[in-house]
Predict the structure.
Amino acid sequence: MSEHMPPRRQVTLATAQAATYRWLSAGRAALHCVRAAISAPEHRWRAVALRAGVFWLITRFVLLGLTYYALVFRPHVPVEQVIPSRLLYAAWLHGDASGYLAIAAHGYETPHLSAFLPLYPLLARVGAIFAGGSVAAGALLVSQLAALAAFIALALLAADLRPGTSPARALAVFVAYPFAFMLAAATNDALFVALVAGVLLLARLGRWRWAAVCAFLAGLTALPALALVIPMVWMYGQRRQWWRADYWRGCQWWRIAEGVRRTPLRNERADIPVCATVWRAPLEMAMVALAVPAALAVYALYCWVRFGNALVFVGAQSAALGHGIFDVRPFFALTWSALTGTLTPPQAQTLVGAALVVTMCAAIIVAARRGDLPMADTLYLLVLLYLSLAAARPAQPQPLAGSGSVLLAALPLFVWVARECERRSWLDLLVLGGGFMLQALFAVYFLNGGVLRP
């Protein structure tokens, strides 16, 4: 065909091909320069944050498309029907979102609303200022920005916790978690995960004051923030070498009596145990250990002033769960009834959620026995796992959705799974493929109001 083409046309095609090649070469060179600039040692964190931001942006578009198709393909809805934009974001206002939006709009009018801790509705009220006065839009805005912060903090945590692990792989495993879609909902999940990631990252960097601030805010966001207390104390004591026997044997007690300031972190000879700071170390330890309890105490004081009962939020959460806030027996009762009863959609989801929780429990045990997880991460994951079992809601259409949402904060486990996926290709396919398929099913379930329709 080209031999019958006029010579002028052939020259034009050749010129276009050469120009395209030059543009591609120039773009490739520019991309290489940008990548080299952000990959420099002093800018490595920028590269990690940039990739996390790209992951976040991609997931927002995917969830937007999933929301559209979940609404379009509902029964009795014509395919050619145009879906208004208000229905797209209204689909993410199910479940606990109604309670948070009521608080953001009108405050704590009734005692049962005290089950929802105050930081997220407060930020939703602030976000409404930038969202045209709509509290619902402000809450979704806060959730998306919190999800972005969680992505960036998790990527930085993966780079710091396991230098050999790709932050992109850790983010992929986190995004593939079956309940990761809840980060886009108008609930406190994204904010809580972001604050937990900030606590874990800042604690590893030795920024204890900022870690305590994030822990305090996490305590004002969700009750599972109690899982941070023990690992933060452990990490601080480990950083100060308090858990070493030779530290206390070589401690010079007379220096404590005289009040001499000695910091073991800056000691030139690390093999010589020295005493911790007399005043600074106890104060930092108090901040680290009491950050979350102090947040709950502040909220209890507000409840006492507002409702005359400091522990009204505990009773409200127990009423919402249908059992005590630390009672794990309903989880096992739900699992047993799902195994022995008729397989209805809620019971099918219960079985899947129970299998997910058991799998994550087994992964924690395997990682701990192999020594792949630090002691602080193991303690944190075990306490978080217990609190996730206590978050089961027998009376809800999605009885184990609360358990799955709590385990979104199991960030060290996601980093460890990402490392194992890099070593074993079959595990990578299983985790990512199976996780995304389950997440699509759960997301459609959630977007349709918690009822799977045929």
Residues 128 and 138 are 4 Å apart (CA to CA). Residues 1-13, 33-43, 253-278 have pLDDT under 50 and may be disordered. The chain has two domains: 42-240+276-447, 242-275. Residues 7-38 form the longest helix (32 residues).
